[in-house]
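Q: Here's a chain of 151 amino acids. Please give me its 3D structure as tokens.
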Amino acid sequence: MVLMNPNEPDTDEDQPEEEKMVDHETLLEMTADDIFADCEDDVVCIAEALEDLDPAMRDELLVSDHLNAYQTFYYYFRQIPEELIQERLILQPASALGEGVLVEEIDLYELVFTVHQRGPLMAVSDGEALLETFEGPHAYTRARAYAEDLI
């Protein structure tokens, strides 16, 4: 039996691995790793796993470097876009969504995806000026329809 001096503080070395405190970023990374271990690259599975998370954790992951913009796009819109759009979004980390990520160009108009106040936003621009914004789960469909009507 090992007796500990009650006047000495416990150290991390004395605690089992499960009880050690992990910092917030490590917790995000571990959560993302668990999701990818279960889902691999299956965006449907990833979206379902995100649904099961605590909302604060989910909101952080959706705009972090642990996901890509395509995984966040699918989570919010539940649509699988054309292959070129998928590839464009896969190449961008979800953290880029704070600034906005170009999703597609329809004629002279650009559709830009961003996450604003914990929700999806699609902006339509002519390359120089913002023409319209759409929010919510139908923002992508509505932004596409708007841009196509401008042609």
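Q: Can you summarize the key feature?
A: The chain has a mean pLDDT of 90.
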